[in-house]
Amino acid sequence: MDLVSPPPNTSGFPSSSPTVPTTPTARASSSSPSATTPSRYESQKRRDWNTFCQYLRNHRPPLSLPMCSGAHVLEFLRYLDQFGKTKVHNQNCPFFGLPNPPAPCPCPLRQAWGSLDALIGRLRAAYEEHGGRPEANPFGARAVRIFLREVRDFQAKARGVSYDKKRKRPKQQQQQKVTLNDNNNVTPPPPLPPSDHQSAANE
């Protein structure tokens, strides 16, 4: 029976995982493809987390994860804008509010709101998975939520698109609407055949 050391702790939080013994069966199961192949979401979350931790290490002065606040998260999001691929028109641009501009313009490329919103969701989950306390999660800070809302509203105006989710009609209301539409276009049913009593009276 071998002793396997846990992976190095890169989260910045104290690790409480002990060294655990493993059996040949456990080693075989841990090396199976189903156990080692993460989902696409988990892979992206891991890359995002590593990128953020690298950003903290390169920060001047360097920051440890427990010292990270919502303000540092906002700095990180603004830093990512230089790698954006979404054209966001300035208010003085003649194409401001046009979803399909007829010509190029010098307005900057930014990170799309949807990408930032999804990124924060993944980092918020990764923070707690690496030992962070939910009540101290900087990715769930009020300043971050306000920032994302402002980015969404401005990009919607600048790009001439709508980020509002379409409200689904209740199922019963949809059925009533279909019934009303059908009643307006339905051909009246044919008259019922005469009953036996009416046939005898006519004879």
Features:
single chain, 203 residues, mainly alpha, two-stranded antiparallel ribbon, 5% strand, Protein LIGHT-DEPENDENT SHORT HYPOCOTYLS 1
Write the layout of secondary structure elements.
Blueprint: E1 2-4, E2 20-22, H1 24-30, H2 33-36, H3 40-58, H4 70-80, E3 86-87, E4 109-110, H5 113-129, H6 142-159, H7 171-185, H8 196-202
Antiparallel strand pairs: 1-2, 3-4
What does this molecule look like?
By secondary structure, the chain is mainly alpha-helical. Helices cover 48% and strands 5% of the residues. The chain has eight helices and four strands. It has helices spanning 24-30, 33-36, 40-58, 70-80, 113-129, 142-159, 171-185, 196-202; strands at residues 2-4, 20-22, 86-87, 109-110. It has a two-stranded antiparallel ribbon with strand order 1-2. It has a two-stranded antiparallel sheet with strand order 3-4. The radius of gyration is 30 Å and the shape is elongated. It comes from Citrus sinensis (Sweet orange).
